[in-house]
Amino acid sequence: MDPVVSEAISVLERSPSVLRALLHGLPAPWLARHEGEDAFGPHEILGHLIQGEKTDWVPRARVILEHGVAQPFVPFDRHGFRDASKVSMPELLDEFEALRKSNLEFLASLSLSPSQLALQGRHPELGTVTLGELLATWVVHDLNHIAQVLRVMSTRYQAVVGPWKQYLGILNR
After folding, report:
1. Could you give the C-alpha distances from 75 to 59, 71, 125, 152, 156, in angstroms and in order?
2. Which residues contact 12 (CB under 8 A, 6 or more apart)?
3. Is the confidence at residue 83, as pLDDT, over 90?
4. Contact at 8 Å (CB) between 15 and 146?
5. SS (H, E, C) the chain
6. What is the pLDDT of residues 90-120, one digit of tens each?
7. Distance (Å, rounded) from C-alpha 93 to C-alpha 50?
8. pLDDT tens digits along 116-155
9. What class, spelled out in words, does domain 3-171 have in CATH?
10. How far apart are CA 3 and CA 112, in angstroms?
11. How many Cβ atoms sit within 10 Å of the Cβ of residue 144?
12. Do residues 135 and 5 lie in contact, with contact meaning Cβ atoms separated by under 8 Å?
């Protein structure tokens, strides 16, 4: 297995436990936070990550490996998850963890080589992309949404941190 793949798996396999540690058992006011209308809060972020596990990362990797640029990716519906706010946080965390475990087992089973990581696919908006870029994007996508969860949660105390707000970069974006 290419070192890039094993490094990516090292990050990707941690995301479910990081999110579980952050979100499981929190009181409802922490979980109901949003950055604004039509913005994702913790429930929607998990719904979005679950949708990605089902319809984005591995399905697109399969398209690249089986069809290359001849078959474009199915567009990803970033709002295609069910109404995640109606699903309990433990259920969302469990579903995400199970899907991620399965997807990473599949990814590891491919034993991708550097030449396979260079294989190209066709994104409906971005044009030609490589399997390596898809894998790197999967990693950064996770990190982006973990940061988003932290940012959204931080706003809960934005009004009560007083003058320390000036030192709290997460509240000054």
Report:
1. 11, 12, 8, 27, 34
2. 100, 104, 138, 139, 142
3. no
4. yes
5. CCHHHHHHHHHHCCHHHHHHHHHCCCCHHHHCCCCCCCCCCHHHHHHHHHHHHHHCHHHHHHHHHHHHHHCECCCCCCCCCCCHHHCCHHHHHHHHHHHHHHHHHHHHHCCCCHHHHCCEEEECCCEEEEHHHHHHHHHHHHHHHHHHHHHHHHHHHHHHCHHHHHHCHHHCC
6. 999 999 999 999 999 999 999 999 999 999 9
7. 9
8. 999 999 999 999 999 999 999 999 999 999 999 999 999 9
9. mainly alpha
10. 10
11. 11
12. yes
Residue 155 backbone dihedrals phi, psi, to 5 degrees: -65, -20
Assigned token pair, 10 = 């090292």
What does the block give as tokens for 22? 């952050």
Q: Whole-prediction pTM value? A: 0.93
Round to the nearest angstrom and report the end-to-end CA distance of the chain.
39
- Nearest partner of 106 among 40, 24, 13, 43, judged by Cα: 13
Among 116, 105, 48, 108, CA closest to 76: 48
Which of 126, 117, 138, 121 lies closest to 49, judged by CA?
138
Q: How many CB atoms lie within 10 A of CB 27?
A: 7
